[in-house]
Amino acid sequence: MHTVLEAEKETKKQADTIQEALNNNINTFQPDLLMEQIVKNYQITKKIYGPKLLKLLTDYEPEYIEKNKRIPEFKKELKENITKNIEKLREKKLIDKEGNISNKGKIFSTISLIKQLDKYITKETTGQKHTKKKGRYGEKGQTHKYKKGDRYRDLNARKTVRNAIKRKHTKIKKEDLEIYERQHKGKISIIIALDASASMKGKKIEECKKAGTALAYKAIKEKDKIGLIVFGSEIKEAIRPTNNFEQILQAINNIQASKQTDFTKMIQKATELFPAAKETKHLIIITDALPTKGKKPEQKTLQAISKARTAGITTSVIGIKLDTAGQKLAKQMTSIGKGRLSIAKKIDNLGNIILEEYHMIKT
What we know:
Elements: H1 2-23, H2 31-40, H3 42-49, H4 51-58, H5 62-68, H6 72-91, H7 103-108, H8 110-114, H9 117-120, E1 130-145, H10 157-166, E2 178-185, E3 188-195, H11 203-221, E4 225-231, E5 235-242, H12 245-253, H13 263-273, E6 280-287, H14 297-310, E7 313-320, H15 324-336, E8 341-344, H16 350-362
Parallel strand pairs: 3-4, 3-6, 6-7, 7-8
Antiparallel strand pairs: 1-2, 4-5
């Protein structure tokens, strides 16, 4: 059992290492270069790699490394740890001979996201959005008098007994029976638009990935469809609403932050991706800043939101520590888009916010 647990621990560590590298735009592992950077300018190295990735590669807390990085004995041990951990990645072919992250490594690192699902997904059910259409095997709704063809398993026992008492029946009769109506859940398509601009690098993009994975899992489990747009100055990924969790998971996993933000292009793309059919169509934008690409980007963003609303698409914004100007624009976006604005003051709360947003869509 100890061996199994240790193996699982090592697997998670390696998945976390690849995932954290992607979050910080690190695509190559070079032990000699990393060691040289740690000794020469530790603060810059820590900023580039991030504290979590440094700990995974060195097996030491960043603060401890900073205090002891020039001690010869510690430098030797540090180099050995870095080399050992990177070599293990190479042995599993998670990186190639040159140290570049392989396709297998990217797929393998989804383990890191999957293991986070328990943090957000509980056995509690979310609210349900219904149409008036009756269905034999849908959710329980209002009740009606029993008629031929109704299932006794849909019996509303409390109302049935109450009817019998009111009528002073000593036994329950056919006219006392109250049957639950069954309702079909309205179709819902959601597109998550993840801001992958340079300012999202590191912890922000990490939490966005976790939140996006949790929402995709929850929605698909509820028989709704999820799409994805990853955007910076360009559209990096665009997936139509689907119930293919594996496709969404892999796309979220591979996100890396870079360059500016172009909201207009992202909203236009989302409008194209949503189905033409009459159903609930909702865009959730997760961002930490104002649009920065092009002339009058804020005005163009609001125009794009307006066109999306005309196409039957509602828009919500989840802002990550937005400044005053950012919040002002986000309020205008959600007002036009008939959605909601949520501000994540604590980045760790992002997953809970996005699941609450899903619950609001469903109710």
